[in-house]
Amino acid sequence: MKMHRSEEIWLIIGVAILVISMAITGYQAFALDMGTPSGLETIDPQKVDETAPFDKPGVYKTGDNEYEVVMTLQIFSFTPMDIEIPAGAKVTFVMTSKDVVHGFQVAGTNLNAMVTPGHIQRATQNFDEAGEYLVLCNEYCGAGHQMMSTTITVK
Amino acid sequence: MEAVAKKTMKQKVNNVLGANPLDARFSIALFIVAFIAFFIGGVLGLLQGLNRAGILELPTWLNYYQVLSAHGVLLVLVFSTTFTIGYFYAALSHTLGGLLSKVRKLGWIGFGSMVVGVVFVATTIIMGDASVMYTFYPPMAASGWFYVGLVFLVIGIWLCAFGAFINVADWRKKHKGQHISLLAFFAVGVFVLLFFGSIGVTIEVLMIIPWAFGWTDTINVLLSRTLFWSFGHTLVNIWYLTAVSTWYIAIPKIIGGRQWSDTLTRLVVILLVVLNITGGFHHQIVDPGITEGIKFMHVFMSLSIGFPSLMTAFAMFAIFERSGRKKGAKGLLGWIKKLPWGDVRFLAPMIAMIAFIPAGAGGIAQTNNQLNTVVHNSMWVVGHFHLTLGVTVVLSFFGVAYWLIPHLTGRVLTPQMNKLGVIQTLVWTVGMALMSGAMHYVGLFGSPRRTSYTTYGDNATALGWDPYLLLLAVGGTLLMVGVVLMVYIAFNLMFFAPKGQTEFQIAEPEENAAPTPKWTERWTLWIVLMILVVSMAYVIPVVDMIVNAPPGSPPFRTW
Question: Which residues lie below 8 Å from residue B54, measured CB to CB, with a gap of 6+?
Fold first, then answer.
C-alpha cells in the first residue's frame, strides 16, 4: 500500500483543516462559552402547566439588563407571545414543549434550539440591535406548523 | 478441476452474452420500482416547490405535509434502496459468476417484503394517517400500520443483505486465497452498513408500534430520535458509498483509463464502513438532554468520515490525469480536454463528483457545532442534501443506469439516447444549482425547512425570503423536466432500445499494480472495529437517555 508523495501532502493538508475546524469549535464551546443549547433538566411533559417555572410563563428581569424568558411551546404557538426587551439585554430562554417536538429559531440571530417534550431547553442571546425579530418553529409539528410564530421587539 | 473450468467458461460466456437472464430479471424488477418511485416522488417535489414559492395553493384534500412525507419516503427510502440493491445484485451476479439460486430466491422474497412494506406506508400516507415525514419523530404518532410497513421494508432489506453475504461467502469458499472483486467488496461494505445501520431504527419502530396502537402509554422521545439518526445518516452514506463504487470502478473504464490502487480503494471502503454509523449524532447538535462533551466528541466522529472522501478526491483526479496523459495530453491541465465530455456515462457521474466538492465542504462546515446552530433545520439543510443526494448520488446512479440497464436487458444506448441523456444531465444540473443555491441562501436568512408557504402574518423578514423561494420553484420546475426525461430514458433502455450487447463497465488494474494484501479481506475485524466505534459513540449517551429519562410522552396526532 504505497501512497504517492503528493497524495500524502494532500491528505495532511485536508486533515489539518479538519483538526483546525474542530479545535476552533472546541475553543468556542468550552473557553468562550458559546456551546450549543444543551439543557439537561427534565420535566413531566404531561404536567408542564403545574410545574415551576412553567406554571407562570413570562419575561422576568434577573439582573442589570439581564432577562429570563420562561416559555412553553405547544401546537401551534409560543407562550408568552410578542416579547419586548430593551436593547443590549442578555436574554436566557428557558423552554419546554407541552406536546410534540418543536423548534425555536429567531431569524437574524444564531438562536436555534430543539425543544422536546420531557426536557427543559436553555439558550442565551445578547440582543444588541434594536428592531423586530421573527421567532418561528423550525421543526414540523403538525397541520398548523407554518403559523407557529411570534416576535421579539428590541427597543 | 472440471467445475473450475466450467465456471470460468461460464464467466466468459457471461461477458460475451451479457447478464444471466434470471439474475437480470431481479435487478430490472428493482429498477422498475426505483424509477416509478422516482417519478411519483419527483411530481410531489414539484408540487411542494410551487407551493413553497407561494405560486400554488394545494387543494384541501392534498395537504402539504402529506405530500412532503410521501416525497421523502419515495425518494429517500424507496428509490435509493431499490436502485442500490438492484445495482449490487447485478454486480455480484456479474463478478462472482452468477447468483446462487437460493440467493436469488432470498432476493425475491426480500423484494416482496419491501413491496408489502411500501404498500402499507404509502396507503397510510395517502389516507392522511401518516403525515409524519420520513423521520416520524415521536410523540407525533401515525397509524400503527405505517410502522408495520416500515418493519416489512427493513426485513426486505435484511433478506437482500443476507443473500449478498451468502453469495460472497460461497464464492470465497470455492476460491480460497483469492480476493473477491472490488465491486463485490463495495457490495459487502454497503450490505454490512444496511444491516447494522438499520438495527437502531428497528428497535425504535418496535418501541413505537405498541405505543401507536395504544397498547403502551408513553414513549421515550429523545431515545427515539437518537435511534432514528443512528440509521438516518448511515443510510445517506450508504448511497454515497454506492455512488463512490461507480467512480472507482466504472468511470476509469469509460474514460479509457485504469483502476486506481486496489488496496487504497478497499481501504476507503473499510474506513467508510467503520466510521459511518456514529455520524448520525450531528443531527442532534441543538437537542436538549445531551451534554456538550458528548456533542463535541461527535464533531470528531462526523469529521472523520471526511477522511476517506479526501482520499477519493485525490484518486479521481489522479485517474483523470493519468488517462489523459496516456492519450497525449500536454501541460498542467491538458488532460481535462481528453475526457469524454459528450459521453453521458461519464458526464453524469463527473458532475456528481464536482457537486460533491461544495456539498462536502458545506457538510463539514455545518457539522461543527456552533456553525450548525446557524443553519439547523433551516432551508440550508434542504439545499445541502439536494446537492449531496439530489446531484452527487442521483447523477451517479443515472450514470450507472445508462450502461447497466441495457447490459441487463441485452440492448444498447443509441447515440440519440446518449444525446438525450446529456440534455437530461444539463437540465438536472441547472435545476439543482438554482434550487439548491436558493435553498442554501434563504436558509442562512432563517427560512425554515418542512414548512408550507407562509409569510407569518406579512412579517417583513419572512417577506424578504420570497425572491429566493421563487428561484427555488424555477429550479424545481426544471427538475421536473429532468425527471420526465430520465424516466423516459430508463424505460426506453429497459424495453424499447435496439437489441445488442452492452458491457458491464469494470476498469482493469494498472499493469504494474501491486498485489492487494490479505488483511483487506478480514471483514470480521472491520465489523468488530465498527461495533467498537459505535459503542464508543452511543453507549454513554444512550444509557444516560434511558436511566435519566423524563416521564414519557403519549401519542399525538397534530395534522
Answer: B453, B466, B469, B470
Q: How many CB atoms lie within 10 A of CB B241?
A: 23
Rounded mean pLDDT, A18-47? 92
What does the DSSP assignment read for B514-532? PPPPGGGG-HHHHHHHHHH
Chain A residue numbers with beta carbons less than 8 Å from the beta carbon of B553 are 45-46, 99, 117-118
ipTM score for this prediction: 0.94
pLDDT in tens, B140-163: 999 999 999 999 999 999 999 999
Residue B548 lies in a domain: no
Q: Read off the pLDDT of residues A109-139 as tens digits, 9 standing for 90 and up.
A: 999 999 999 999 999 999 999 999 999 999 9
- Cβ of A14 and B307 within 8 Å? yes
Closest CA to A112 of A80, A134, A145, A129: A134
Which CATH number characterizes residue B368's domain?
1.20.210.10
**Residue/partner pairs of A146-150 with CB below 8 Å, 24 or more apart:** A146/B451, A146/B452, A146/B453, A146/B454, A147/A76, A147/B454, A147/B456, A148/A75, A148/A76, A148/A77, A148/A78, A148/A102, A149/A78, A149/B454, A149/B456, A149/B457, A149/B459, A150/A77, A150/A78, A150/A81, A150/A82, A150/A83
Of A118, A112, A114, whose CA–CA distance to A102 is shortest? A114
Q: Where are the domains of chain A?
A: 1-35, 48-154
Q: Which amino acid is at A144?
A: G
Query: Which of left, alpha, beta for A108 (phi over 0: left; psi -120 to 50: alpha)?
Result: left
Do A4 and B318 meet the contact criterion of CB atoms below 8 Å apart? Answer: yes
The architecture that CATH gives domain A48-154 is Sandwich (2.60)
pLDDT digit string, tens, across residues B102-145: 999 999 999 999 999 999 999 999 999 999 999 999 999 999 99
Let me know how long chain A is.
155
What part of A 13-72 touches B (C-beta under 8 Å)?
Answer: 14-15, 18, 21-22, 24-26, 28-30, 34-40, 42-46
Question: Could you count the other beta carbons within 10 Å of the beta carbon of residue B388?
Answer: 25
Nearest to B439 by CA among B450, B428, B425: B450
C-alpha cell at B291: 451534554
For residue B139, cis peptide bond before it (omega within 30 degrees of 0):
yes
Domain total for chain B? 1
CB B345 within 8 A of CB B399: yes
C-alpha atoms less than 13 angstroms from C-alpha of B123 in its C-beta half-sphere: 14
Domain that holds residue B157: 21-507+533-542
Distance from CA of A103 to the nearest CA of B (A): 8
The helix or strand, by DSSP H or E, that contains position B450, with its residue range, turns out to be none
Minimal CA separation from B336 to chain A, in Å: 19
Show the cell assigned to B313.
Answer: 478526491
Query: Quick one: DSSP state of residue B553?
Result: B
Phi and psi of A113, rounded to 5°? -150, 150
In this complex, do B140 and A100 lie within 8 Å of one another by their Cβ atoms?
yes
d(CA B87, CA B2): 31
